[in-house]
Amino acid sequence: MKQSLFIIMLLLVWPFVSVSAQMSTRKDARAVRAALKAWAEKVEADDDITLEELAPYFDELDGILDAMGKLSKADSALVNSDPALADKVSASYSKVKNAEAMWSMAPTDYINGYAFVDLGLSVKWATCNIGASTSADPGDYFAWGDTVAVNKTKNYVYKYIIKDLSERYYGDEQYAMIGDDIGGTPYDVARQLWGAPWYGSFI
C-alpha cells in the first residue's frame, strides 16, 4: 500500500519536475542568446580594436560557446533560430579576426621611414599602401605610371597611355607609351615617393 502511494505521488510530482527542468534549460538558452548579442554589440561598437583587447574578446566568446555546448539540441536550436543575431555575431567575429590579422603584421623594421613586414618570402612587404595609415586603409589611388594621387588631385588628367596605344591623341593631349613593366622606373610610384629600394607591385 505504501509503495502504491509512493508511486502515485511520484507520478503526480514528475510532470512538475519535468516542467521545472524545461524552464531552467530555456532560461539557460535565453542567457546564452543575451550573452552572444551583448558580445557582438560590444565588438560592433569598438571602432579601434587594440592588441590588448583581442584575447579578452576571444576568451569571452569561447566562454559563451562553451555554455552553448552544454545546452540540449532543442535549446541550441533555439539560440540559433535568430538569423539576425547569427549575422551580427558572424560580422563581429570577422571584425575581431581581421583585427588579429592586422596586429599580426606588426612591423619587422623600417626602410626610409616606412614600415615593412618580413613574411619569409623573397621580398619584404610594406605594412600598408601608399597614402594609408593602417593595413585596412586602401590608401591613395594612382593611374598607371603616374605618381600623382588621383583622389587628391582636382581636375586630374592622366599623363600616359600604355602598350599599343602609343603616340595616339586624345583631344589636345598627347600620350606616350611607358611600357608594361614599370617597377623600379621613374613611373614606379613606390620608388618615386618612398625611395629605393621600395618597389611597386603592379598587377
Task: Write a concise keyword list for the protein shown above.
48% helix; mainly alpha; disordered N terminus; 3-stranded antiparallel beta sheet; 203 residues; 5 helices; two-stranded antiparallel ribbon
Describe the structure.
It is a single chain. The protein has 203 residues and is mostly helical. The chain is 48% helix and 6% strand. It has 5 helices and 5 strands, in the order ααααβββββα. It has helices at residues 2-45, 51-69, 73-79, 83-104, 189-194; strands at 109-111, 114-117, 125-126, 169-170, 173-174. A 3-stranded antiparallel beta sheet has the order 1-2-3, with no helix packed on it. A two-stranded antiparallel sheet has the order 4-5. A hairpin with a 2-residue loop joins strand 4 and strand 5. The protein is elongated. Residues 1-23 and 162-167 have low confidence and may be disordered.
> pLDDT below 50 for ≥5 consecutive residues: which ranges?
1-23, 162-167
Count of runs of 4 or more consecutive helical residues: 5
Helix content: 40-55%
SSE order, one letter for each helix or strand = HHHHEEEEEH
Please indicate the percent range of residues in DSSP E strands (runs of 2 or more): 5-15%
**Largest sheet geometry:** 3 strands, antiparallel
Question: Average pLDDT value?
Answer: 78
- Rg from alpha-carbon coordinates: 30 Å
Please give the alpha-carbon distance between the first and last residues.
90 Å
Structural class: mainly alpha
Number of strands: 5
Q: Walk across the major sheet and give the strand order.
A: 1-2-3
Shape: elongated
